[in-house]
Each structure stands twice: as C-alpha cells, then as structure tokens.
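Pilot study result, target chain (190 residues):
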Amino acid sequence: SKRFNDETNFQNFYRSLAYKLSKVPAYDAIMAADDNALSFVLKHQQELFNNQPIVFFGVNNIALAKKQKSNPWVTGVIESIAIHETLDLMNNLHPEAENIIALVDGTPTSQANLKAFYKAAVAMGLNTVSHLSTVQLSFEELYNTLKNFQKGCIFLDLSVLKDKNGKILDFGESIELIKQNLSCPLYTLW
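Predicted structure:
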C-alpha cells in the first residue's frame, strides 16, 4: 500500500480480497500490520470482516488505535518508538548542534512520527527543531538540499520512502542515498 498508494490499487485489492473471502470459510481472526492495513480493515470492517476479531500491530497512529477501544471487534498494539530517548542521545552526543532536522514523507506512518517528534521536542524544551519533507520535495531536491548542510545540524530520519512525484524507495535504499548526500550526523529510530 505504500509503494502503490493510489485509489486504483486499493479498489483492485478490495475486489480481489472480497472475491477470495467469499470463497472460503470466515477466518478466526484478521491481522492488520501497520497504519495503512488498519485503516483498510476499519473502512471495510462491516462488509469484509463483520463479526470477526481484528488485531492490529505496528501502528503509529496512536489516536486511531486508542479510538478502537470502543470497537468490540478490534484490539492491538501500537508501534512504540523511542523518540525521547533518541533525541536525548542526539543532544548528548552532539551538544554543539544548533538544529535537529527530521526527514519525513507524506505517508501516515511518517506523519504520525513527525507529530511525535515535535511533541517530544516541546516536552524536552528543544527550540531548534524543524523538518524537511518529500511531500514538497523530490528525492533529487532533497539530496541537493542535504548537501548544503554543514556542521551544527543533526538529522533524524523518520521515514522517507515516497517523494512529491510518487517515486518510492525501500528503507535501505532511502537511508543509503541520504547518507551519500549528507555530511552531518544522521540518526533513525529503527
């Protein structure tokens, strides 16, 4: 769903899954891995998974996860990221840093992590935080921008898998290309 994040793919997946589910006995439970999967099963809970237990995991959207407390058929666990601890480590290892810059894309996971980043920064009293997003930048524009940063900045990759043009990279490719174009320290939560 992250690589082919468009309505045509979702409709095709829905039709295929609906067909398959109509041909087999109901499953004992439905497992939904990550934010997009949870959103899909919730959107289609009544028609595809009616009266079936749904268990989610690896979800970053805490508000959506907590909202399921009122849904008797849904339970699960959120993906716990060590954002406070990572920011604390970054500050301790780089006390001279003037700015902490998060790198994000527009995926639900990345946007949820960005909210957690700013919330943690406020709680920790960090005033010099910002972000760069591939919602507004292509990968090439991001890499050219990163080349301009010198000492005084540290970066936190919160997930940069999709750019403004819809180009998709896997996590390994993304982190490698960021590292190739950045001379400042780079951290990630994973």
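One observation from the pilot: Residues 7-22 form the longest helix (16 residues). A full batch analysis is planned for the follow-on phase.
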